[in-house]
Amino acid sequence: MPTIETEAPASPAPPGPPRQAFIERSHQRSEALGLKRHEKSGLDPMIRSDLNLARERNQRLYTHAAPVMQLLYEQIVNTESMIVLTDAQGTILHAVGDDSFLARAHRVALAPGENWAEHAKGTNAIGTALFEEVPTLVHGGEHFIHANNFLTCSASPIFDPRGNMLGVLDVTGDHRGYHQHTMGLVRMSARMIENHWLSDDYNNRLRLHFHSRPEFIGTLLEGILVVSPEGRLLGANRAALDQLGVSGAELRMRSLSSLLGTTPAAIYDHFRMPMSPPMQLCLPTGQSFFVSARFDWPSRPVVGGLRNAEMADVIDAREPSQGTSSLREGEWTGGVPSPDAPAQPADMVATAATANGAQRFSGLQYLRTGDPQLETVIQKVKRVLDRGIPLLILGETGTGKELLARAVHHDSVRARQAFVAVNCASIPESLIEAELFGYEEGAFTGARRKGAPGRLVQANGGTLFLDEIGDMPLPLQARLLRALQERSVTPLGSTKSIAVDIAVIGATHRNLREMIAAQSFREDLYYRLNGLALRLPALRERTDVEAIVRRILQAERPQDTPELSSQVLSMFRRYQWPGNIRQLANVLRTAAVMSAGERLVTTNHLSDDFLEDMQRAVGGLTPAPPPALAPAWPPYEPHAALPAPAPTATAAASAAAVEPASARTLEQAEIDMIRATLDAVGGNISLASKQLGISRNTIYRRLRWNTPDKPE
Fold first, then answer.
1. Are residues 553 and 513 in the same domain?
2. Alpha-carbon distance 236 to 577, whole Å?
3. Is the pLDDT of residue 294 over 60?
4. Is residue 467 located within the same domain as residue 523?
5. Confidence (pTM)
6. Residue-number span of the structural domain to which 240 is assigned
7. Burial code of 434-463, b = ≥16 C-beta within 10 A, e = fewer?
């Protein structure tokens, strides 16, 4: 029989008549449930398999909550207390705290596997917070069951961005150590978990961070709104709902335009430049907010329309037996097949036959979009797949080297094990050795307690992807070669070797043969990595640009995928794309947002800097710099006439006599067209912008650079 805590002298209860009514309602519910105040708190935990199942169902909640719980524990350590995480049914999933208090809590069944909903334990912070859906404090004798009167509990529910209950975070301690700030810590911690969840759910969506005071943007007090490319409000954190004074359901019935009087295109236009100041937007009531925008779009390569982060989710999908499958066997999630490929059922486009004849998703098949050079690369990979031959992927930056490596891993027998990517160019030289090989506790200043395993050990059984291997420091190349040859790793500060079994894929945009000649890359490491060299073609060399464009636009606007206008498509075909697919993806991502609600992407939806790059590359133009004493340009007014000084007939004749017709540049023709259009619309810049398919800023820039100084 479990020991029941004897009641200690009462500590001062938190004040407030509203709390008394709140607690009384919970007591009435507890009595109605048939609970007795003198019931003994016997242990009745879930069986181990059921607890493991509950933890698996709530793995994502724990992933977001664990670091927050650790941070919170550092604030309350040695205070005779504990931190509890439950699911939405009140089952305790995880608990951390002072060992002595954990033992005391265990006697009243406050432990993983136990249920603390009101129907099981009566009035308590966890169960009452679940029922009322508000942060809840239950102190000492306010607990319904007397055995729990030695506790003081502060709990806050955790919600997802759509307002669904995820679970409860709770801090429980000895009621004699009650502190009024504990509830504040718990509420802030719950909001941190909610914000992490929201960012994870919508990491590729427009998120607006706002507050009535600009200094609170970036703190836990800020509101966060998630906005679709069409301007629909997809979700919000609790701080946003509190500041806006609406419920989650009411918010999702509104649009960005009806709520704050703006559009995603206007938001994106404002924040396109670095260090843009916050926007000031108003509710229909007149209440104003300062707004900052976050996009968090991955900057890694895009092939076939999926960013690496998105493709990783797809090609790392496991079979259902592993419990993490996001694709059923034979299921296809979208994308565009080669335009020349024969018609196939959609669910067969990117599947491959397994040994028993079933179909599963194929990463390599997905990358096929009709380009013959890429097709050759894929066929080569298929011939050496699972043969123990290391691959070296060559190609310019932005061509999709990591994506190919992920596809190879997914289609290999190692797919169930880890894919570990290391960017040798992004890790400081002083840290890359510890990052690759791991280290023991105390191996160097700043080393983590208990050390770290290192990337090679993490990749054991799976695939190690060494991106930008040409940037690895020369001394480290020798140690990597030895580890690959001996198939073992010795962490820094250790004398013990750890056996590893890894498939190695290297990648670089550098010419390694030239580096070998210059003695900046080891020849023996080159031949160890170069079992089969694969060169990915640059985008300008590929024949499947239109298929890639369609995939990218489908990924950005799946509900109303736009098409490129004939003018933009012609420009794309002629452009050299120095940034390759990464650059194309960034251009189209902007265009997808700017063209929200429209069927065609036109030049009006492309950024000015890209249009200028295009003009210089395709037209051989270099815009003239602004004159040193250029006159100040008037501020934009929607219907203000823009004076365009016209040369006199004599001046025009003189210019024609001096400058032959062949010397008249495309730039000057463009300026003349702008001026003619402005004359036709009476100087209305907005109307001229729409007719010409260019932005207002471009009109201002062209005419400012080419307006002669006014006479003194």
1. no
2. 38
3. yes
4. yes
5. 0.44
6. 202-294
7. bbbbbbbeebeeebeeebbebbbbbbbebb
For tokens 């709140």, the residue is 22
Cα separation, 191 vs 505, in Å, equals 41
Interatomic CA distance for residues 390 and 525, integer angstroms? 12
- Using DSSP's 3-state secondary structure scheme, residue 587 falls into helix
The values of phi and psi at residue 246, to 5°, are -130, 160
End position of a domain, from candidates 191, 210, 226: 191
Q: For residue 90, give the CATH number of its domain.
A: 3.30.450.40
Q: Are 588 and 297 in contact (CB under 8 A)?
A: no
Find the mean pLDDT for residues 518-527: 92
The confidence score (pLDDT) of residue 305 equals 39
DSSP assignment of 597-621 equals T-SEE-GGGS-HHHHHHHHHHHH--
* 549 found inside a domain: yes
Question: What CATH number should be reported for the domain holding residue 608?
Answer: 1.10.8.60
As a three-state string, the secondary structure of 623-669 is CCCCCCCCCCCCCCCCCCCCCCCCCCHHHHHHHHHHCCHHHCCHHHH
- Whole-angstrom Cα distance, residue 218 to residue 591? 28
**What's the structural domain count of the chain?**
5
Q: Is residue 308 predicted with pLDDT exceeding 90?
A: no
Considering only CA atoms, which of 614, 623, 622 is closest in space to residue 584? 614
Distance, in Å, from the CA atom of 510 to the CA atom of 394, rounded to the nearest integer, reads 8
pLDDT of residue 84: 94
Return mean pLDDT, the chain: 76
Asked if residue 154 is part of any domain, the answer here is yes
Quickly tell me which residue has 């000895």 as its tokens: 174
Residue 118 above 60 pLDDT? yes
Q: Tell the residue number behind the tokens 């007014």, with chain if given.
A: 637
Q: Cα–Cα distance between 25 and 128 in angstroms, integer?
A: 10
Are 39 and 78 part of one and the same domain? Answer: yes
The neighbouring-strand residues paired with 92 are 86
Please report which confidence band the pLDDT of residue 592 belongs to, taking 50, 70 and 90 as the band edges: confident
Check pLDDT > 90 for residue 377.
Answer: yes
Assess whether 472 and 436 both reside in one domain.
Answer: yes
Q: Band of the pLDDT at 50, cuts 50, 70, 90?
A: confident
- Distance CA(172)–CA(119), nearest Å, equals 19
Q: Are 64 and 196 in contact (CB under 8 A)?
A: yes
Last residue of a domain, one of 518, 535, 552: 535
pLDDT for residue 12 is more than 80: no
Q: Are 158 and 165 in contact (CB under 8 A)?
A: yes
Residues 140 and 237 in one domain: no
